[in-house]
Each structure stands twice: as C-alpha cells, then as structure tokens.
Automatic annotation (TrEMBL):
<feature type="domain" description="DUF7884">
    <location>
        <begin position="18"/>
        <end position="99"/>
    </location>
</feature>
<protein>
    <submittedName>
        <fullName>Cyclopropane-fatty-acyl-phospholipid synthase</fullName>
        <ecNumber>2.1.1.79</ecNumber>
    </submittedName>
</protein>
<dbReference type="InterPro" id="IPR057206">
    <property type="entry name" value="DUF7884"/>
</dbReference>
<comment type="similarity">
    <text>Belongs to the CFA/CMAS family.</text>
</comment>
<dbReference type="Pfam" id="PF25371">
    <property type="entry name" value="DUF7884"/>
</dbReference>
<keyword id="KW-0808">Transferase</keyword>
<dbReference type="GO" id="GO:0032259">
    <property type="term" value="P:methylation"/>
</dbReference>
<keyword id="KW-0489">Methyltransferase</keyword>
<dbReference type="GO" id="GO:0008825">
    <property type="term" value="F:cyclopropane-fatty-acyl-phospholipid synthase activity"/>
</dbReference>
<keyword id="KW-0443">Lipid metabolism</keyword>
<dbReference type="InterPro" id="IPR029063">
    <property type="entry name" value="SAM-dependent_MTases_sf"/>
</dbReference>
<dbReference type="InterPro" id="IPR003333">
    <property type="entry name" value="CMAS"/>
</dbReference>
<dbReference type="Pfam" id="PF02353">
    <property type="entry name" value="CMAS"/>
</dbReference>
<dbReference type="InterPro" id="IPR050723">
    <property type="entry name" value="CFA/CMAS"/>
</dbReference>
<keyword id="KW-0949">S-adenosyl-L-methionine</keyword>
Length: 416
C-alpha cells in the first residue's frame, strides 16, 4: 500500500512518537519526510544526525528501531542519514535501547536464527558464504585495509603504531607465540591475501601452506608469493579445511573459525588436532561472543550482520571455545583478550572507508557501500562496549608433558 501523507501530515503523525521518546531521552537527532519539516527527538540546535525517511518501510523501522531494522532500512535505501558515521551509529544504538521492541522478540529471533542455521555448514554453504563476503573485489578491500591487506584484528603494542605497523606486529606476535623455527611446516587456515604465510616464510624460515575458499584471495595471494620469489616455501590452495592432509608442525587460524558454526567446533578442533605433529602447536585467533550462552549482540545487531555481512557466522563465548577445544583433543596453553585492539583496528578501517567514499562507491553498488560502512563502524562500537571480543588461544595436543612448555610467558614478548 502506498503512503500518501505529505511532509507536513507525516511530521504531525510522528510528533506523538517523538514526544514519547523525548520523555525517555534527549537525542541530538531529527527526522524528515522527503526533506519536509523536521521532527526533533531532542533540541533542534544540538541535532548531529538527520534521518530522511523515503517510504513507509523507513517509518516502520523508526517505530520499531532495532539495529536490524534500522540497518536494513539504511542498506535498502528506505532512509538516508546525514552526520558523522560515529554519531549515526551512536544514535542507532540509543534509539534501539529506548525503542518499543520487546526483549521477548529478540529472544524469539535468536531462537529462530539457531533453528534456521542447523545443518547449514556444508562445504557448499560455507564456500558460498565466504565468497559472498570476501569476493566483493580485491581493489575494494585494498582501499581501506593496510598495504598487506590484513583483514583481522591488529596488535597495538604501545598504541602509537600505524595500522600497517600494528598488523605486522600482530603477525609477528602470533608467530612468536608459536615459536616458529626454520624448517617448520605451517598451515594457515583462512590465509586471506597471504600476509601471514609470507611473513612466516621470509622472517621465520617456515615452509607454509595457506588455504582459502575465496577465489579473489587465492589469486592475489598466489601472485604475491610469486612476486616475493617464495614459490618453493609457500603454497596457496583453494581448499576447505576439512580436506587438508597433514601433518604440520604449526597451525594458525586467524579470523576464520567464526564461519565454522557452534555445533561444529569440536570437530573443527579435532581436525586441527589430527593435522598437528605430536609436538605441534596451533593458535586460534577469532571473534567471540560476550554472552555466556553464545547469544548474538543486543538489539538485532547480530541479525543484521548475519543477513548482510557474514552469512552463517556464529560467535562462541570464550568458555565455549575452551570447552570445545578440549573436546577436540587440544589443551589450551594461553588465552589473550585483544578486544581493545580490535576496536582500534576498526577505527582505522572505518576512517579509511569514510575518506575513500567516492572511489569506494565506484567499485561497488550503493547497497554494498552502505553495508560495509555500517558494518565497520557498528563493529567498532560493539568491541568498544564489550558486545563482542577477540581472543587468541594457543593450544597443542592434550596429554603431553608439562615440561615441554616454558614456565613463564616471557617467550611471547621478546626484547626489541
């Protein structure tokens, strides 16, 4: 049904809704219908964000303002927003927190999500999900990532590093934790554009296999290996982790296990166990839920990510990670929380994305540009506010002698 209200009629219709919200909270935000009279949700003089409603679906999103509904309305073009992206995401969260959506609705949606996800992590489904996210275009990612195109949490040892420096420090931090030595055979599960295996071969002397399900990543990573003259040390494969044969002295998995699925985690870690040599070590670096029940982020943010960004992605709590590692035959040696580091990483990415707006819009359609814009700044907010976290967990096959591990963590932080 078409909405026939003119701008002044709609402003009048929205006033009761705005008045109810103003009694709860003073938001520096105003809403307009096709550029008509603005309805303020706070003081007009302090408004930092303007929402322009394009159609009835946009109004519906505002009246039931979950992050999923608001994000969907923006991505699909039912609303436009004016203001800094940081202010926009802050207003979205404050609207969602003070909206009319009942908590029961959120619980129901999470239950339906779990039911819908059951059985979906086949090789075919996982490949399609990975290619949906990573095969947008290499040039698109290159515009806002660091030069090595490392698409995972960086490591800011002092907080003064550039993004490029922090990404290299992250890779070195991982490889140092693993005590990589010349001649070790390393498997990198979800190798991205090849930055980790290149570093492991060049600096640490490892022989490496990197696997990915993204055709774009496979192509560029292979080119980078060839350009570095490391074809004899590094092999990049377009391969599912379930199809790899071992053994390997060291295994890394960085930003990949989020795609495995909660019910598949014991099997995933069992595969890592089976691929390791008896004295081998592995490191899993991945995003985790801060809900002990492995729930989604609040106000529908997780459902937005699932719909538009990471189809079939599921985040376990760190407790679930450690439990399923043990079930898979692995002993956790060390766990490090890098939540603050990921918030800072995403701040770099989001600023670069905003700065590259015009060129990025020429590389993808408007919808994909809007998806990634909200995804980056929304994820930054989630890490800053403990909605999600990031853990590096160092592990090895369980049941080994305690004497084979140093007594302190000093080896992880060598003197510079």
């Amino acid at each position: 049904m078409r909405l026939t209200l003119d701008p002044s009629q709609l402003a009048s219709a929205l006033n009761p809704w705005a008045e109810r919200l103003r009694k709860k909270i003073d938001l520096p935000l105003q809403v307009r219908w096709h550029g008509g009279p603005a309805v303020a949700l706070g003081n007009f003089d302090t408004a930092r964000v303007t929402v322009d409603v394009k159609d009835a679906a946009g109004i519906t999103a505002l009246l039931a303002p979950s992050l999923e509904n608001l994000g969907r309305a923006y991505v699909e073009g039912h609303i436009d927003v004016t203001g800094s992206v940081q202010d926009v995401i802050d207003m979205a969260h404050r609207l969602a927190e003070n909206g009319t959506t009942e908590e029961q609705e959120g619980l129901l949606q999470r239950l339906l999500h779990r039911i819908a996800e059951a059985g979906h992590h086949t090789r075919e489904h996982d490949k399609a999900a990975i290619q949906y996210h990573y095969d947008v275009s290499n040039e698109f990612y290159a515009q806002w990532l660091d030069p090595a195109m490392v698409y995972s949490c960086a490591y800011f040892e002092t907080g003064t590093e550039t993004l490029e420096q922090a990404q290299q420090k992250k890779i070195d931090h991982i490889l140092t934790k693993l005590r990589i030595e010349p001649g070790h055979k390393l498997l990198d599960i979800g190798c991205g554009w090849g930055a980790l295996v290149l570093r492991a071969a060049e600096k640490f002397g490892a022989t490496c296999v990197g696997i990915t399900l993204s055709e774009n990543q496979h192509e560029l990573a292979t080119e980078r290996v060839r350009a570095a003259g490391l074809q004899n040390q590094i092999e990049i494969r377009l391969q599912d982790y379930r199809d790899v044969s071992g053994p390997f002295d060291r295994i890394t998995s960085v930003g990949m296990f989020e795609h495995v699925g909660l019910k598949n985690l014991p099997g995933y870690f069992r595969i890592i166990h089976d691929l390791l040599t008896p004295g081998g070590w592995a490191l899993n670096h991945g995003i985790t839920s801060t809900d002990p029940q492995n729930g989604e982020t609040s106000h529908g943010g997780g459902r937005f990510i699932d719909r538009y960004v990471f189809p079939q992605g599921e985040l376990p709590h760190i407790g679930t990670v450690l439990t399923t590692m043990q079930q898979g035959g692995l002993e956790a040696i060390d766990a490090e929380n890098l939540r603050r580091h990921y918030a800072r990483t995403l701040e770099f990415w989001s600023k670069s994305f905003e700065a590259g707006g015009a060129h990025l819009k020429s590389l993808v359609d408007e919808k994909h540009w809007r998806i990634w814009r909200m995804y980056l700044v929304g994820s930054q907010w989630a890490f800053e506010h403990d909605e999600v976290s990031l853990f590096q967990v160092l592990c090895r096959r369980r049941g080994q002698s305690a004497g084979s591990i140093p007594l302190s963590r000093r080896w992880m932080y060598p003197s510079s």
